[in-house]
């Protein structure tokens, strides 16, 4: 029976959001929070992107795979209520590391994380498993990916993008006729194409579980998806791409994080308030932003609870932040509750939550921003 015939009924889809990594590339910004809990656009969190896409795509069986600093994610999830996932049946389920039987302990990479949850996936008995990272900014109806998967009879459909940056930091894909993936290299030194994975993977559940079992027997640890799992399926000739034509950016480095926020204020990124596909989050219990007399604010996003008396140009000001009179912010992101004292100048910088700054803080360019930690020191 072909895959389309098998799933003439609505396939049962399990979404797994990978939210366990330490986010080390963001340096001091993730010393005290998980990367998926990083603020986005002043009023949101990174994990809101995948959860909002799932909500709008009508996918309601969602597991969050946690490991590093899980409380910072759980405080935001609120049982899934903002994304209509607080349900009696289905809805949101958090998967922390565990001990006691097979699969216990901390995962060493996202494919290893899937292996540790394999018995729970098998018990849930989905038809398809949608695996998502939680540190990318994009908009996608996952139902379109499902359509591609069923139409082609693939074991794995990976979402891909035409990338205009350094592809060597990503999984690089070569594509043949009909969207068939003919080659895959994980973070290669010399990429053979500009097509990279968007880290959205849709697996046929049975094939995923069989592959995990097979690879476990032949490898000492599975690591990340690009080490063994995806290459194994590509070798079987059972992988296709689904090309994402819209905006996509990996926010896992300071440069990309700042670049994405500058894209938002420049109107080059996503429209966060798109009425057809809004970004959903836990609504803050904060008063509206206050812009004082004499303040200068241009081409910027100012979150609820912020107070601006100084100058803000092409920047994002987080909730509860204060820019005093005489302070200047340019081409930067201030996270929640930052305070800039009079005379402070911040440019090409990301300032961590609760920092209280006096003086000058500047990176050399958007591609090389300064990261200021919550104590006011320049971070790594």
From TrEMBL:
SUPFAM superfamilies: Nucleotide-diphospho-sugar transferases (SSF53448), Trimeric LpxA-like enzymes (SSF51161). InterPro entries: ADP-Glc_PPase, GlmU/GlgC-like_hexapep, NTP_transferase_dom, Nucleotide-diphossugar_trans, Trimer_LpxA-like_sf. Residues 359-380 are annotated as: Disordered. Residues 292-357 form the Glucose-1-phosphate adenylyltransferase/Bifunctional protein GlmU-like C-terminal hexapeptide domain. One of its GO terms (biological process) is glycogen biosynthetic process. One of its GO terms (molecular function) is glucose-1-phosphate adenylyltransferase activity. Pfam families: Hexapep_GlmU, NTP_transferase. Keywords: Glycogen biosynthesis, Nucleotidyltransferase, Transferase. Residues 15-264 form the Nucleotidyl transferase domain. Transmembrane segments: none annotated. Belongs to the bacterial/plant glucose-1-phosphate adenylyltransferase family. This is Glucose-1-phosphate adenylyltransferase. It comes from Arthrobacter agilis. The lineage of its organism: Bacteria, Bacillati, Actinomycetota, Actinomycetes, Micrococcales.
